[in-house]
Design goal:
heterodimer, A: 193 residues, alpha/beta, two-stranded antiparallel ribbon, 31% helix, B: 596 residues, alpha+beta, 4-stranded antiparallel beta sheet, 17 strands, 36% helix
Chain lengths: 193, 596
């Protein structure tokens, strides 16, 4: 696959942190951002549940990596990587995103505008619990954050971009999520529902 | 056998029952069941929705100054509005005032969200209920150009432009991936636009998609980042440094100029594209004035957009505040969020438990204890409901009432209140819109009226943005660069116990948060959101909510293609928060329709 260091790459996490395992995508990018410094052509974004509102970020990217909780019908916590033309094909068979808008609509909207990223990679994790309002990520899912980050590093390397471990810890105020909704604080004070 | 509801509807639950689940192209998930008479006219409507189970579970014992960051996550589209409502609730509880600049900036952010949401809602979630995309393929580009130029000066209107667009659309449709256009009943007789109007609307669908991202730049500038901008109790988090150049986060002249140009652009789009489109589409649907529901009877608006900082009284709010009941537009009642007898939530038909369900609870005393039981006549099982029993509990949405009345909230409610208050900035545009279409005032109380009110409001909001932008710049030039008041930032300065409320007009209607603070931590936190008002189930007296009322007496062209139901429900811009917990893993793309 031809790579170019000037290609703009978007690393996007989607999902709702308030619905247990649905937060996987956001927590994965949050942790990736906490651990790694990326080259200038890479943007790391917490997309939340913004649906169509994310189109503009897709338009600005040549390559896209998405983290999301996806119901593949696999064992809880199983990671699956889907790429390029497989991404929409996959979504045709089964609703890809668990969110209302459906991330496939975001992709096809970008496509309709003629500015869809040329290369897509979807790192999905099979959720166990999406029903626990205010609950934490379940163990099989949170255990996959590390392996998911290894996957994104490998894809970035393949695409000619770099991700290097931070030489000093990221300040709390500079994290992707702040104000007590960062992963640690959100779950530290969590009570059983 | 008919049932007369106290709020004036006659329900007949005999006849064919149609189930639509899920209603697509909304934020969240909902289900609608209706009964049709022999002529396929809706004679009973039941709407049920999923909703979060009370944010208090998550917020209890947290720092009130962080509550906005949590509430921002409740919903994918109301992010900023929830955050604003939250900081207002905390400020109200603790008696914190904000500087004038912070008020102007918050108004700019809130108004930008209104415009953004209204544009995206109309073009991307609602237009396809009126516009047949597939019919656009057979339009004559030259005639489309003539049509477009007859309604507006918008420059993108040449025959070549529409021809190119049609080619692009054709390619897209032929590739088999209808994408965002998947959820449609293309070819249905319920669509009334000629192919040329359809093509013009599809062109604007794409332009809006392209243009909406400009608007949110305002949030990025003032909020520091998007899609989840920062907020601050006591003001706004962005410092102002007019002489600065590109300092991280600070507002300088360069950024203020950028905002100014975005406002010019969105005003042009509102006035030359959005409003003319709604009027043009409306002109083909003048004989389809269904869907009024409660809009001509009982409407509620909290008001928003304070002219001056820290005054939330009706006279200081630029968006109207007040309530109207029993269709009497000559009397607008004041609304008090702190009065325990005014806003109350009932759960007799909701999947929650109260000690005494004949009574409602004011949000300060709200409880959210799930109780998932189906009525005795429900069909199916708890995990696969075939048919709801509306005589029992049937929705995850509570039933908020204002002094016992079911109320409609949203753009139409706001504009009806403004109209009733005889405010020229609301009354005149409504009168003009109706006059241009040769329609009487009664036509306002309809699905089309709801859609028109949103377009009129988008135009209004754009002009208000210009006003507050100019005000902000003038104030800064006069030497005031204050954006935050940190006098009471430290919890040591707070009373041991405090309670407060914050309200806004979210794009889809009246939104309020109620907070109780104890020993500097959150003790109780309740949100009553617009879709709780509009999508509410019946109450103990049998009043039906706004969605249900709006579907009554609507004839359907083809019950297998419930376009009329989607059109009316979409006109409310429903937002049922993130309801992933019940989304079927195989989540159907197209609504499943079952006729029983």
């Amino acid at each position: 696959m031809p790579t170019s260091s000037t290609d703009r790459i978007l690393v996007l996490g989607i999902g709702n942190i308030l619905w247990a395992d649905d937060g996987f995508g956001v927590r994965a990018v949050e942790e990736f951002h906490r651990r790694y410094v990326v080259s200038d052509n890479v943007t790391i974004l917490d997309g939340g549940t913004q649906g169509l509102y994310l189109v503009s970020y897709l338009e600005e990217a040549d390559r896209l990596i998405v983290f999301d909780a996806i119901d593949y019908g696999l064992e809880p916590g199983e990671l699956k990587l889907v790429r390029d033309e497989e991404v929409p094909r996959f979504t045709g068979a089964k609703k890809m995103s668990l969110h209302q808008t459906g991330f496939q609509e975001v992709i096809s909207a970008a496509d309709l505008l003629g500015r869809c990223p040329k290369h897509l990679a979807l790192i999905g994790c099979q959720p166990r619990d999406l029903d626990d309002w205010g609950g934490p990520l379940t163990k099989p899912v949170s255990d996959q954050i590390g392996p998911a980050i290894e996957l994104v590093c490998a894809i970035l390397a393949e695409w000619g971009a770099t991700a290097s471990p931070r030489s000093k810890p990221l300040l709390e105020s500079e994290r992707l999520l702040t104000n007590d909704i960062d992963h640690q604080h959100y779950e530290m004070r969590m009570r059983p529902v | 056998m008919g049932i007369q509801t106290p709020n004036g509807f006659k329900l007949h639950n005999s006849g064919k029952r149609i189930v639509i689940d899920p209603v697509t192209r909304i934020e969240g998930r909902m289900r609608v069941e209706v009964n049709l008479d022999a002529n396929n006219v809706i004679r009973n409507a039941v709407s049920t929705g999923t909703m979060w189970r009370g944010i208090e579970v998550i917020l209890k014992d947290r720092d009130p100054r962080d509550a906005w960051a949590f509430t921002e996550r409740i919903c994918g589209v109301c992010t900023g509005t929830h955050a604003l409502t939250s900081v207002r609730a905390v400020e109200n509880a603790l008696g914190i005032t904000i500087p004038e600049n912070a008020n102007s900036i918050r108004n700019l952010m809130q108004l930008a969200l209104q415009v953004h949401d209204h544009v995206v809602h109309f073009y991307h979630l609602h237009a396809l209920d009126w516009v047949d995309v597939v019919s656009a393929l057979s339009a004559d580009p030259r005639a489309t150009s003539t049509l477009a130029q007859s309604i507006s000066n918008w420059p993108l209107s040449s025959p070549g432009y529409f021809k190119d667009l049609q080619t692009r659309l054709k390619k897209f449709v032929e590739s088999g991936q209808l994408g965002p256009f998947k959820n449609g009943y293309w070819g249905s007789k319920a669509y009334k636009l000629p192919p040329e109007a359809n093509l013009m609307a599809v062109a604007h669908y794409l332009e809006a998609l392209d243009f909406q991202k400009e608007i949110v730049k305002i949030h990025t500038i003032f909020g520091g980042k998007n899609p989840h901008p920062n907020w601050l109790v006591g003001g706004v988090p962005c410092p102002i440094n007019v002489d600065g150049t590109g300092a991280v986060g600070a507002i300088n002249m360069e950024r203020l100029n950028l905002i100014s140009s975005i406002i010019d652009h969105l005003t042009e789009f509102n006035e030359q594209v959005y409003l003319p489109d709604v009027a043009a589409i409306g002109s083909f649907y003048k004989d389809w004035l269904y869907g009024g529901g409660l809009s001509g009877k009982s409407v509620l608006a909290y008001g928003d957009v304070p002219e001056h900082a820290n005054d939330y009284s009706s006279r200081n709010l630029k968006l109207p505040r007040g309530s109207i009941i029993n269709g009497n537009l000559s009397e607008v009642f004041p609304v008090d969020h702190a009065n325990p007898d005014e806003i109350q939530e009932f759960v007799v038909h909701s999947w929650y438990k109260y000690p005494d369900e004949t009574k409602g609870l004011h949000p300060w005393d709200g409880v959210t204890e799930p109780n998932y039981v189906l009525g005795p006549k429900a069909k199916g099982t708890k995990t696969a409901i075939e048919q709801l029993d509306e005589s029992g509990k049937y929705s995850w949405i509570k039933a908020p009432r204002w002094r016992g009345h079911a109320m409609e909230v949203g753009p139409l409610a706001r504009w009806v209140v403004g109209y009733a208050q005889n405010k020229a900035e609301f009354k005149d545009p409504v009168d003009k819109f109706l006059k241009d279409l040769d329609l009487p005032l009664s036509a306002l109380f309809s699905t089309l009226g709801r859609t028109a009110a949103r377009a009129l409001e988008s135009v209004w909001a754009g002009r208000q943005m210009r006003y507050f932008q100019d005000k902000l710049v003038a104030n800064i030039k006069a030497g005031d660069s204050s954006t935050a008041n940190v006098d009471k930032w430290k919890p040591e300065s707070w009373p041991k116990e405090a309670k407060g409320f914050g309200f806004t007009e979210a794009p889809r209607g009246a939104l309020a948060h109620w907070i109780k603070i104890k020993q500097t931590k959150i003790d109780n936190y309740q949100c009553v959101v617009p879709t709780t008002w509009n999508g509410s189930p019946r109450d103990p007296k049998g009043n039906i909510g706004a969605f249900e009322a709006s579907l009554m007496d609507t004839p359907m062209v083809n019950p297998e293609q419930p376009l009329e139901i989607l059109r009316t429900i979409h006109s409310f811009d429903p937002c049922l928060a993130c309801a992933t917990h019940v989304m079927s893993p195989d989540g159907q793309e197209l609504a499943t329709v079952k006729v029983r």
